[in-house]
## 1
Amino acid sequence: MWAGYKNYLKRIMSTLSEKADHLLKTIWLMHEKCVIDAESVLSRVPFSERSTIKYLERNGFVSLDNGVLKLLPRGKERAENLIRRHLLAERLLTDVFQVSEAEMTKSACAFEHILSPEVTDSVCTFLGHPPMCPHGHAIPRGPCCAKLSTEVKPVVQRLKDLGVGEEAKIVFITPERNKTLERLALYGVVPGNQIKLEQKHPSYVIKVDETILALETSLCEQIFVKKIFKQNNKK
């Protein structure tokens, strides 16, 4: 009986937490538009979630005074982290996995609740610290971004974005058809192998071991690589 009651409380707290997170995100987004009056903010929230404001107020996430709704430091930090995880997930799902708009939104909502700070920073670094989401909204900067003085290129990029003469290691391939994978594998174009981009015009030409291979532009957009930086040996 006690175990059942604990599971019931866990479900209640999980639901409350998701509602609280959704409300924090809404408040943060409205504040970005310089809207701080409670009536305007709550008009954007489903009626069933409005009572959650009391929970946020009791736990030090927001303050509500004379009709003005403000995010306290604790609430602002959590809201920014939620927004950051959501928008980074949108970038990952769009740029790398090329999922549909509906699936991207659904999955990003799930990711924002489960990604740890370490994984979030890893995703951000993997994508090259993108400043905006696919819809053009600014992505809040994180600790990994603060360490950078300039924007950097993604750790992993499409083959077509390599410079002529540059070498890279294939990380993964996202072909539209399985037969494409099989055809590429015959020539050694598989994850883990090293390639060199020989030319871009009039067509893309790569070198894999001793094999020279011409590729369509569309195919070069589906091959993701990690550039190899050669160190100069000083005597």
Note: The first strand starts at residue 62 and ends at 65.
## 2
Amino acid sequence: MLTFSGVTKRYSEGGEVLSGVGFELHAGDLAFLTGASGAGKSTLLRLIPVIDRPTRGQIMLDGVNLSKLPEHDIPGIRRRLGLIFQDFKLLHDRTVFDNVALPLVIAGFGHAEIARRVRAALDKVHMLNREKRYPVSLSGGEQQRVGIARAIVHKPQLILADEPTGNLDPELSVEIMSLFHEFTQVGVAVLIASHDLGLVSSMGGRLLHLSEGRLIEEAR
């Protein structure tokens, strides 16, 4: 599904952030990307939806070379991905329903299909009874669940999560991670950047560790 081959990312001012990174991710994989702050975890994740591009190397997603993807093809690639952020990135003037519906509205789905998919996604994260609420009235854990529902509503093949439990307490963090594990059971690949080694070690899955720009897959 996803293959990094010799991927290097260098910034003119900050130097080399990633150096010769290589790994593969397959359907149904759960993988954790770990490393100290500034190790390059977020940089690596940004390369997959082509928010940024590598300096050298190749990134393939189902046979498509993301490293050389034309600008007009980027939206199509992003529709295959579900993106989840530490700070939720919800629209506070929209209801829970409308936040989750946004990717489908942009993609041009009809009203009936949007309603069906949104409610199915909210039900999956146990937030169906909150669809008319606004984000400001929700707890941090509830807001993250809405963010996850928005990420899965268009049925992505790969979920990318950047520190998704960074603002949550330990109990909620375990609940959120358990949701990601459920998604892998239906063939969705999940790649999670996290600095919480205690939580990561309790979850199983693959462990990809970044140190000084280089990636090492650690045995469990």
Note: The mean pLDDT is 92.
## 3
Amino acid sequence: MPLYANREELKNRPARDAWVDIDDVEFFTLGNSDREAQGEEPLPDEWPDPITDPEASLHTTHDIAAARRIIPTTPQERLVVVSGEAYVETENARATLKKMQWIDVPPSGAVVRNALNPGPEGHRGQVEIVRIAGHWSEVIRTAIFTFGPGRPCDYHYHDGDEYWFVFRGHFTLHYRGEDHEVTPGAILAAGMGEEHGVVDPAETFEGVGFATQLEGQGRDGHLWRPVHGDPVETR
């Protein structure tokens, strides 16, 4: 089961991971600036990256562009709002997305804007979005997950491939009898039948879960050995 520390490792993954149908995952924010960010325009030097610096303020948003134009570089791209509210325009649709809602970006691209109402001082809060890019043939689940003390992720497997993108928090992943330390920005690719879980998280962590087409017996959701039998790995 590949575990990539960051998106650069994912984009430069070895040939043995050719089955992974996610090519890039990006976490970006929308703030208050009237300018429109182009492509992957970097944030100003004085604004900490929320992935590498989890202590970054969520309130000083005036230097961050309030809008961004997305032009796909892969066959499929999906935007998932993980906090706040965003307004998305494509050539054929307009939609306001709230937390846990998503939209697929057409080949012609999209413009996504901060849709939060200004506060008493005229400033809007920050919107957080995850962009998933790849070449999948089907998606069966896109969800935001939150685990933490007293709320573990049980040890399980799937009849299909599942991906995690962690955007907040640290935890220890249990996989095949070994422990792996996971930090913000990491991408987990769990192939069909590969057991994984977080038994006793020490802190709260959040991420986006993304599952592609079902295989094998085609059972959706978490599967456990005592209930569903031994897993069959295909990767």
Note: Residues 23-134 form a domain with the Jelly Rolls fold (CATH 2.60.120).
